[in-house]
Amino acid sequence: AEGVRDNAPNAIVIIISNPLDAMVTLFKKVTGFPTNRVMGQAGVLDSSRFASFIAWELGVSVKDVNAMVLGGHGDTMVPLVRYANVNGVPALELLERKYNDKAKAKEVMDAMVERTKMAGGEVVKLLKTGSAFYSPASAAIAMAEAIIYDEKRVLPTCAFLNGEFNVNGYYVGVPAVLGANGVEKILELSLNDEEQSALNHSVDSVKSLVVDMERLGF
User: Fold this and answer.
1) Per-residue pLDDT at 119
2) Catalytic residue among 37, 49, 73, 117
3) CA-CA distance, 161 to 189, in Å (whole number)?
4) 58-63: long-range contacts at Cβ-Cβ below 8 A with a sequence spacing of 24 or more?
5) Is 131 left (phi over 0), alpha (psi -120 to 50) or beta?
6) Which residues are CB-neighbours of 9 under 8 A, at least 6 positions away?
7) Closest to 46 (Cα-Cα) out of 114, 147, 128, 130
8) Which residues of 191-211 are buried (b: 16+ CB within 10 A; e: fewer)?
9) Distance CA 112, CA 65 (A)
10) What is the distance between the alpha carbons of residues 110 and 124, in angstroms, rounded to a whole number?
């Protein structure tokens, strides 16, 4: 962080290192960079995993699946079932049609949500290399291209919140517009009580992580 601050003071930085939420916070603290120029990559990866599981289950192309994951990068992340869709058709509705059983569809969706939360560990176990790196690299490239080419893409990003989603002063995974200025806008979603409660729980985990980091003297 000090090297970037001293040698590239105008840089826009995408953090990938885990624990992601704490590392982004620490980088911002050390560099003093504006919050729009410091962000973390996690949501693009987590959302793509969620979308992939939905695509496999429904037998459709992942390119046609839209899925969003909010919150911290850990087992408290919040895959938004209500917003998951296949070209505009709710994914849960398609599952209900497939199984002709609402309870079964919910059971399958809940399993995909849990698998999304644990997917990082699943990949590490399969790779046997100690770390997942292919998909995080791909996700980071998508974010970098959005910034370099000023694409104004809406991507799940670990971004600093100033009251959005009822969160103030923390880096949390949310949908954001990425362009030449870095994080150019936070897009707030309308959350129901259950979704907001889950996000609050995830944010509490982020807060605890930051507190632990500060206790270690960082």
Assistant:
1) 80
2) 73
3) 14
4) 58/86, 58/91, 58/94, 58/95, 58/98, 60/86
5) beta
6) none
7) 114
8) beeebeebbeebbebbbebbe
9) 14
10) 22
Answer for the pair 140, 16: CB distance below 8 angstroms, yes or no: yes
Structure tokens at 129: 């290399």
> Quick one: which of 175, 172, 180 has its CA closest to 151?
180
DSSP state of 74: S
Q: Contact, 164 vs 175, CB < 8 A?
A: no
Break the chain into its structural domains and give their ranges: 2-215
Whether 161 and 32 have beta carbons less than 8 Å apart is answered as no
User: At residue 190, what is the residue type?
Assistant: S
What's 32-50 look like in SS3?
CCCHHHEEECCHHHHHHHH
Tokens of 98: 């497939």
Whole-model pTM: value is 0.91
Helices (H), 39-133: 43-58, 91-99, 102-127
CATH number of 2-215: 3.90.110.10
The pLDDT averaged over each successive group of 10 residues in the chain (218 residues) is 98 95 96 98 93 98 98 94 98 98 98 90 51 76 98 98 97 98 98 98 96 92
> What was the pLDDT predicted at 136?
82
Give the Cα separation of 123 and 1 in Å (integer): 28
Residue 164 neighbours by CB distance under 10 Å: 17
Has 201 been annotated as catalytic?
no
SS3 12: coil
